[in-house]
Fold Nuclease SbcCD subunit D.
Amino acid sequence: MRLLHTADWHLGKVLKGVDRTPEIGEALKTLLEMVAKEGVDLVVVSGDLFDRPQVSAEAEAMAVEFFLRLRELGVPALVIAGNHDPKERLEALAPLFALAGAAVRGRPLFREEGGVVEVGGLRAALLPFVSERILVKKVLQEAEERHRTYAEAMRRILANLESPLMLGHFALEGVRPGAGEFVFHLTGSYAVPPSTLPLGARYVALGHIHRQQQVSEAPVAWYAGSLIQLDFGEGEEAERGALLVEVPERGPVRVHPIRERWGKPLKTLRLKPEELDGRLSELERFPGYLRVVVEGRLSPAVKERLFQGLPHLLAVETTGGPEDGGNGTLAPELGLVEAYERYLKERGREEEGLLERFNQVLKEVELEALAPGA
Ligand SMILES: [Mn+2]
């Protein structure tokens, strides 16, 4: 059996105002061509199909299109939700996806609840991302066990689900991050030791880490990596793409990395202010999106000129720190109101009324976010 293992599409991703969905859609089209050309029997999607709980209709349409095309090709799919996905929504749409031949799981189930499915004679476990609070509640039901960790709960549910093929969306200890992931879900209590992976699995198809890599040899476990470079923090050279996995009747599985450069490259350039003019034409020619980090200070006028001259420049940051006159990156400790106040000052628009109104809107939004049912 030949599998195509993919993960971390992040349809609906908007990077500093630029919608990356069309680039991801192009990558998905190429994947479909590969499925047809390589005689793939099963497509495995290990979470983070979508970037946020609410994505554009275009992003949803691309996911739907993908599974309908797979159905036309006669290829089934297994899909789990990642931490970015609208998991309840995926769960609600699961019966519809099932009609297209895709088994979709939004929440974790034990084997006896349907956590293991059979496809083409292969048993496969589907373990979507789950928050520590919910997992510990589900798995460790005895009150005295509640102090146990996410890793322990994961070990138990993985043992329960042990199958030849296993899908998961979590961080293994010792993994090399791609830097675009939500850090909180990578480290500390959220990291699972590789020894929790059941030895009875022949292949563990992981998602969550955007850098493609093998993380275990027994059982064989890989992160497929994201389709495109999603964030400036992810290295331009970092491995990503998809994996073609051959699972023979018996004997070891063989994994063929498909390392494609889908989507536009993102580049960060660190420059001194005096270097800017000399490098403008080089920056203009860059085929992807740029972030420029300028050492020291930069006047708002120069910054404005850069943005106007370089349409694919998405961010200009300075390393001057907060006392550099306020035109740098926002220091993380700066609150939204202070940041806005500083921005108004920068623009010569120190109007009390504007700041007051901003403060008011912010409070309304916060209240709404806290309201039940939000
Ligand atoms: Mn992801």
In short: Residues 8, 48, 82, 84, 181, 208, 210 surround manganese (II) ion (CB under 6 Å). The CA atoms of residues 286 and 312 lie 9 Å apart.
